[in-house]
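The protein record now logged underneath.
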Amino acid sequence: MPKHALDATTAITTGQTSLGVELGSTRIKACLIGPDHKVLATGSHAWENQFVDRLWTYSEEAIWEGLQASIADLKAEVVKAHEVALTSVGSLGLSAMMHGYLAFDADGTMLVPFRTWRNTNTEAAAAALTEELGFNFPLRWSASHVYQAVLDDEPHVAELDFITTLAGYVHWRLTGRKVLGVGDASGVFPIDPATHDYDATMLAGFKGMVAERRPQLDVTMLLPQVLVAGEDAGTLTAEGALLLDPTGDLEAGAPVCPPEGDAGTGMVATNAVAPRTGNISAGTSIFAMVVLEQPLDSVHEELDIVTTPGGDLVAMVHCNNGASELGTWASVFTEFAEAMGVQGGADAVFETLFKAALEGEADGGGLLAYNYLSGEPITGMAEGRPLFVRTPGSRLTLANFMRTQLYGAFGTLSIGMKVLHDEGVRLDSMFAHGGMFRTAGVAQRLLAAAIAAPVSVGDTASEGGAWGIAVLAEYLRKGATTGLGEYLNHEVFADAALDTVSPDADDVAGYDAWLAQYRAGLAIERAATEAIS
């Protein structure tokens, strides 16, 4: 047996491993790593949100079925790759989509279906919180959801005992601890960077706003405890182990790191936790995280102020719509290829389409694409209608079409990034991860043009947040004796290979011209939401 396989087997059988599980928008992924942070095995399960009663949700059953399926897939991969059964792990971490609203009564019963980050029904609450507390409260933040439920006088508010995020919910069920990592908590309510806890002044203001309508409800008692990376967040209970693995093979007792949001795990996965660095995660949604050297001077509705898993301030540009529409068009071309009898599958189609984009005109040839499957707060859209728009004089070619589709995936993001630029925030580098960066040099190059900053893609990009939360679990397992940034630099990424692309001047000029048309064309998008139900 090769030495590396023997080493992996030893790590697995002696508990020198860390398991990270991330519940993403379209996939639940489990990632097992060894003490050198190298991936030993992965498992996954595809799932989709549902639009129920005009709200985006995932059912409670789907959460646990998906988690169990991803763990079963991981266990099978461990046996296949290393010829040993996975019965225990050295540490564990849970991560998931940030924000949203999971509400429970005193008995732990979920009061309403999980309301995800994708919902935009909280406009009144977010606006009131932003105005009263002097801090930007995005529509998707948990605090906005709580206050909207209060404003709407929803019946379940009378029974509220605890709220949390998706990662916090899974962590609670696995460990019994009602906690959140500070990065995920910063999407619940603003964090004070000095205390690494909820901002006390704003929390008192929030309590008063809620009390005006619900005098018996102390909203401060609803929130999970905040922990920073490396702190004790509990252990996997016997009940929790069975929730993950109903076969009973997985042993209880593993220490569990603070649960984090996908934004924070993306920062870890790309070593983007230092000032003047950041990362961009592209999936169903697309968002940028930029670590700040100092607080911003002004409140901007386009920017969320959150934190790294270590508690440092981050400006987040979050767009509800990312690569989904791009994937839909790729599926159409895949169907066409199959109808023509061309073999190769979806991966080959993606690669062909992406490479064609590099041949497109820098300004997209006069084409416009809007990837709005759902509402987009940054551009003021309450709902979405995917659009492809051109004029009679535009140049519709495959190359221009695909370049425009990629531009469209980055359009709203670049609007938010320009706000940061105007605030004087400078970037040394941005790290990108997500499936759209698998085709080397294409989305990466066009993203560099869209944000006018160097973009790096590393070896771990395809594993993403599941690997990132596994690293945070390993950080806990090894004692968290140094700061998170130092640990990542010296223990995790010291030998990492990175491919960095600097913005091309012609691409930047072309993209700027395209973006000007994109901004003007938002009127078309708005008209579509009004005209087409």
